[in-house]
Structures are given as C-alpha cells and as structure tokens.
Amino acid sequence: MQCSHSNSNQVIKFSATLPTQCHSYQLDTGADISIANLDHWKKIGQPPLQLSKTIASLSVWGGRSLQIEGECTVKVSYNGKTLQLPLTIVHGSGTAICGRNWLKSLQIDLNAHIYGKSAPLNPKMPTIGTVKSTYSRQKLDDILNQFPELFSPGLGHCSKIKASLHLRPDAQPRFFKPRPIPFARQQLTNEELQRNVDLKIIEKIDYNPRGFAAPMVVVPKPNNKVRICGDFKVTINPQIDVDEHPIPTVDELFLKLNGGEKFTKLDLADAYLQIELEEESKNLVVINTPLGLFRYNCMPFSISSAPAIFQRVMDELLAGIPFCAAYLDDIIITGRTEEEHLNTLKMVLTRLKEFGFKCHKEKCDFFRDKVTYVGHVISKDGKRPDPKRVEPLLQIPNPTCICRMPWSNPMLNPAASHYRSLQGLVPWSDLRHRTVVRRSWSLQGTGRSKAYDTFTMSKHFWGKSTTTIASFLATPTSVRRSTS
C-alpha cells in the first residue's frame, strides 16, 4: 500500500494496491501500535494473520479490552521509502489507527500534517544550540527551512567552477594492474563501485594500456562500509604542476572570528567530489579495479592539487562575507550578536546554494557555545587545543637519551606560541644540535635540567592554556623608520 497525507485533520490516507482503494488511518500518538478491524483487513487483501509474539492484551481509553484476531505484515510506502510494518487486527468497528510504531518507522512529519508547516524530525538533523530569544530561534528555523536542498540526500554539484589538472611537459603515462582485494571486502567494494557509478562520480571506460591507470585502494570505514580511491602517487601526482593556492593557517582562520559569541559549523558532504573535472583531466584520474577501468568525473581526494583547488573555490565562495572562514570543507560562522550571526549564516547558505554544494547534516552544528574546529575548541573566550588530540601528547614519557628527543620535539612548536619569549626553548635546541654522538649520550648537567623544564612546561601549556581570539588584535604594532 502507499501512504499520503489527506486534507482532513489528523488523518493519513493509504491507497492499497489490492484493491486499489484509499483507506483512512487516524493518527494517534497515544497508541503504541497500529490497529484495524476485520472489515479493513478484508479490504486490504486479507494478508496472512499470525499470533502476536509481543502483545498479550489490548485496551482502549477507559479500560475496555479489545479482542485480538492476529497480526499481519503489510507493505507501506511513504515519502520515498517502502517498509514492511506490522498491523494488528482486532474485532469491533471504528477507524483504523496509525500508532507510534508506524509514525516512528515512517518518520511522519506531524508538524506539517497538523500545523501545515514542515519541521525536520530526523534525529540526525543538524543540532541547534541554545538561542536566548524565541525570536532568534524562530528566525533560525525560518532560515534553515529556506534551504532544504542544502541538507537533502545525494551528491552536490558545483556549477560555478570545474577543476583542471595540468601535466608537466615531460610527463609519461603510467599503467598499473589492479591490486588484490581481500575476499571479505569484495562484496562491499563492488557495491561501493556501483554506488559511485550511480552517482556519476566514476564511469567505466575501455581498456587502454597506453594511458594512465592507478591501482584502486579500498579503505574500511567505521560504519562497516568501505571507501574507494586511487593510489595516484604512483601515476599522476609526481607529474602534475601542483596548484599553489595557500591553505590558511590556524591564526588566519581565527582572526576572522574575532568578537564572536556563538558559532555555527558547516561540513560539506563528500566535498571534493562535488567539483567536476574538466573533460581533458578526467582521463588522467583512472583507477584499475578487478571489474575493469573507471575514470573519475569528479575531483578525487587523493590528487595532490585537490586541497589547493578546493580552498580556492571556498575562498571565492565566501569572498566579502564577514565573520566566517573556511578550512577546506569545514566552514565556521559567527557574529558579535545573534542578529549578525543569523545574517552571516543566511549569506553563506545562499552562496552555497548558488554554487550547488550540499552539506553533511549529521556533522553540522548551529549556534553552539563552543565547537571543535581544525584541532581546537573555539568559544567566545578564545581557542585551546582539542583535548582528544592533546591527551596522547601528554602521555609522552620524558626522554632519557638524545636518541628519543626527535620523537618529543614536535610538541614544542605549538606550545611556543604561549611563551612570552622563545628563550625557554633554547636549552632543548642546544642539546639537539651539539656535535656529539647523539645515540649514546645521556642528558647530563645543567643543560639537562633546563631542557626538562622546557619539556614539562610545554606539556603544561598544551593541556591548560587558552589563547584568546581577540589577543591577536589587542597589541598594536608600531613601526619606526630610521632617519639616519
């Protein structure tokens, strides 16, 4: 049977396939299950009845019991999905009831049905933080409802720009055979290949041993699925002119957020794949699989120029919009007031719609007091390192010999930004660069004590420090010119 909304209040109509008639089910959020009488059961084709394994008795409001005839399974289609749902058949008369089990499974929008205004019921929709005023919360909902296509399923398609890859003059085609795939992942890999073909991310091409072909790489994902990509480091990556568009630094990103109170984070779904390749570039990104050769129609993740190309698109997209920044596919938005935040959000969503992008709704956050962004936790008070990334660094043991120092040194560079002077890092640097036999020399003398102090202080700053965003602008810089 197929399900559609009716015009009558609190009623949903189902048009059964056998016979082809419309049957009314009354919405009842107080009913645990969906029920119908024997007359209705006969009208929908008398599907086989069986004893219910979970329902011992039924009673209506007031305590009156209902005699259960049995339970059947019916095929219900609603809003693009088809499900097999249980329907309990009882003796008596009255309208068939659509209970909470069907409401939940079909994800029926009660707001749209009762009030005539749609509201997302999906628990995985973007989370919205606390908005102080009812007016601002309502305005935020109104803005999001203006852009339903941005969070709809499917792959976005950038309509403004196409990516182009440029080979060096001395480039030579390289063709590699497919790599074997573990038996346990073959079915998942074939399904993922077909999904990519259906989305027009890739397309099958004829065998050409004189062209480019990179071996396919299968990467397992946490959701028991796989991601496919090409090992382009053995084919075109060493032979293309890499795009040199600058990727913004952390300080450059946070400088744009100065004065922000709350923060919104947008994540683009399959970001790079939303940008189409120029026709001449498509034949350069070919993957060799056990099912044959496939070429990418969209920009794959593993191309060395992909980050710079995508960052250029993001910079063009956000040009002229205040209080927002983008690091590749992660966009962050803020404002000094709620009204300013909402206006910026609307401008960004409008640009995304114009460009044809789509967002990953499960990874978006709206109006949050703090968000995690590029390895930092950002709030109105400033930024600090993400505790999840800091914890492994805090567990690094103090080095006992010079040979272990290179493993510990990377943690010092970020911590240096919290020092009033870099002078405290000098003893550690001296120990690393002395012309001695490093592999056998132990840390000794006063140099050892200063180096250990530096190491301990760096751990402390990693775990406890916060750099206020406004501090980047707080200290004026004066430039003096000599007249001599």
Automatic annotation (TrEMBL):
CDD domains, sorted: RT_LTR
Matching PROSITE patterns: RT_POL
InterPro entries in the record: DNA/RNA_pol_sf, Peptidase_aspartic_dom_sf, Retrovirus_Pol_polyprotein, Rev_trsase/Diguanyl_cyclase, RT_dom
Annotated keywords: Endonuclease, Hydrolase, Nuclease, Nucleotidyltransferase, Transferase
One MF term in the entry's GO annotations: nucleotidyltransferase activity
SUPFAM superfamilies cross-referenced by the UniProt entry: Acid proteases, DNA/RNA polymerases
Domain Reverse transcriptase: residue ranges: 200-378
A Pfam family the protein falls into: RVT_1
Highest taxon, organism lineage: Eukaryota
Cited PANTHER family: PROTEIN CBG26694, PROTEIN NYNRIN-LIKE
UniProt-recorded name of the protein: Reverse transcriptase domain-containing protein
Organism: Plectus sambesii
